[in-house]
Structures are given as C-alpha cells and as structure tokens.
Amino acid sequence: AEPRPRVWLARPLFEDITARLDGHFDVVRTPVEDRYPPAAVAGHLREIDGALVTLSEKIGAEEIAGAARLRAIANVAVGYDNLDLPALTAAGVLVTNTPDVLTETTADFGFALLMATARRITEAERWLREGRWDRWSFDRLLGADLHGSTLGILGMGRIGQGIARRAGGFDMRVLYHNRSRLPAETESACKARYVGFAELLAQADHLMLVLPYTAQTHHVIDAAALAKMKPTATLVNIARGGIVDEPALIDALAHGRLAAAGLDVYEGEPAVRPELLALRNVVLTPHIASASPATRRAMVALAVDNLIAALGCGPDAGRPSAPVNAGKMKR
Ligand code: 8YV
C-alpha cells in the first residue's frame, strides 16, 4: 500500500478534533507549547507532507529549505503574516487559513475593547481595587461616549463589517477606509461611508484597526498618522501589532496627543513594552479576540478540513475551502 502522508501538528489543539487527522495521515505531535526557534521548525518540517500550525510558528524560506516533501500548511488563524507567502508559493506549498468562523467573535471582542477603552473600565477597576474610593466625585474617571460619535474602521473586510454592524446599534456614525471601496449594497448594509485615509484619521473619535499585516500595512499608524488624529480619540488594535509604530503610539498617549488605546496585539508579542504597561490610559489584552470555545474549536476544525483536502484526502480532496495561495502556485 502507498505510505500515508505525514503531517506535523505543531501543538496540541482540541485532541477530539485533531484526532481526525489520524484517519488520513501519520501524525507527528509536538507536545511543546511555546515558540519554536527557526531551526526547530525546520527540523519538524523535514520528511513532512503537511503541517497544521498557529501564528507562533514562523515559516519562510529558511524553515522550508530542507522540507522537500512539504505540500500544504494549514494555519489556524485568519491572518497569515507568520508565513512567508511568496517563499511558500514558489516552493509549491499550498497555504490555507480560517476565515469566517471567527468573524463574529472577533468583532464582539473589538467592540468590548473599544467600550472598555473609551469608558476607562479597567482603569476604573484598578482604582477601585486599590481602595481609593473614599467619597463620591462628579468628575472622576470621565470617559468618551460611543453614541453620537464617529467610528473609523481601517480595513473593511469581514471583521470590519461586523464591527460596523455593531456600531449601528450604538448610534455611531461609521466611516471606513480600505484598499478598495466596498460595493454599494455592502456599504448600505453596514451603514458605513468610504473616506480617504487622512479623512478617516481626522474624523474618527474612535479608530478601529482591522486590516491584515503586510509590507504595505507595516506601521501605517505612525507618528505622522497619529498627528492627524484628534487628541480626544481612542485607538483600538485587534489586527496585528506591526500595523502600529508602538514607540510613536506610546509617545502620543503619554503626552496627551491621543486619549487612550485598547490593544490586543503587539509588535513583539508575547513581549509587551514596559512603557505600555506603565501607561494609565491603555487597555491591554493578550491576543484573545477570537478566544471563545466555539470559535476556537471551529478554527481548528476548519484547519483540519483544509489540511485533509489540501493533501488530496477526504470529501473535498484537492479543494480545501479556505486556500490562500491556490492559483498562484508554480508547480
Ligand atoms: C488567532 C488571529 O488566535 O486569526 C487570527 O489571525 O490572530 C487569532 O484568531 C491566532 O492567530 C492563533 O494562531
């Protein structure tokens, strides 16, 4: 009989779901939970036909240099900036991601982070826990309203549209900027108006970042962009840390040129800059926007289906439902 394809499961993920891989493949499981140095990833990918990975596994030309058999990588995330797409595409490796299944959970969290940041919820709780609530004060911990304000959304994909729909329920005016303008029906469904980048920055009372991280979006929110924003504005990032120039953001927050920031992602995560930790006017969460049990399970299930199909097995053999680079393949 033909030898079964070998796949690498980079970390333990819902064993009852990933067990489905064993029906088709010889599965190599790595029990280590933390980040792999590049040499270790390269070692794991040798003699492997496919891999199921998370954003902690950075894979590029160096990691796949000795991976002659590698044909497919299923990323358990909608973003895939951990993967060097041109290098993988050139090597004939099909990459898949997990869109759609995390849209609503991530949009919920974006909204929660926006509200917590604008209304200073974690700052207020810290203050209370410190035992400082001695008497009532009329002007204590005043925050920014959502209702009647303007929400700017940078990146109007599935998650951005989910945020826009929620904003309607809070009586916010929604402006967006995106690589391309959305069809008129989509715009009116989420009651969002397209504006240029500079106008978005200038108009937003709250700015939500929901765009993919690429060479083009690296540091789009830099000192110059921050200078165009209202000093009373709130910035929320649920996309990727590298979209924001963190030292420039810290400087703006520390010197009253931006009111507050809610961050779920960081340039050097899991490391968080101590200057951020020292700021009063930030809400900081550890990259959990998609973290609900149902959504995390759906992400893993989709990645498993993608890998099975990408390696030519199962009911959708050869046609994974969420390919990223199919059609760009040279071999
Ligand atoms: C994941 C994410 O939790 O989907 C994404 O792009 O950032 C998160 O949903 C994370 O990437 C896990 O790999």
Domain count: 2
Give the CATH level 1 class of the largest domain. Answer: Alpha Beta
Write the CATH architecture name of the largest domain.
3-Layer(aba) Sandwich
Outline type: elongated
Mean pLDDT across the residues is 96
Beta-strand percentage?
A: 5-15%
Q: Structural class of the secondary structure composition? A: alpha/beta
Chemical compounds bound to the protein: 2-keto-D-gluconic acid
Unreliable segments of 5+ consecutive residues: none
Q: What string gives the helices and strands in order?
A: EHEHEHEHEHHEHEHEHEHEHEHEH
Biggest sheet strand order reads: 8-7-6-9-10-11-12
Relevant CATH superfamily of the largest domain: NAD(P)-binding Rossmann-like Domain
Helix content: 25-40%
Q: What gyration radius follows from the Cα positions, in whole Å?
A: 22 Å
Secondary structure tally, helices: 13
Reported by name, the CATH topology of the largest domain is Rossmann fold
> What is the β-strand count?
12
Largest sheet: 7 strands, parallel
N→C terminal distance: 26 Å
Give the SSE map.
Blueprint: E1 6-9, H1 15-18, E2 26-29, H2 38-45, E3 50-53, H3 61-64, E4 72-75, H4 85-90, E5 94-96, H5 103-118, H6 121-129, E6 150-154, H7 158-169, E7 173-177, H8 184-189, E8 192-194, H9 197-203, E9 206-209, H10 223-227, E10 234-237, H11 246-254, E11 260-263, H12 274-277, E12 282-284, H13 293-310
Parallel strand pairs: 1-2, 1-3, 3-4, 4-5, 6-7, 6-9, 7-8, 9-10, 10-11, 11-12
2-keto-D-gluconic acid binds at residues 54-55, 76-79, 102, 290.
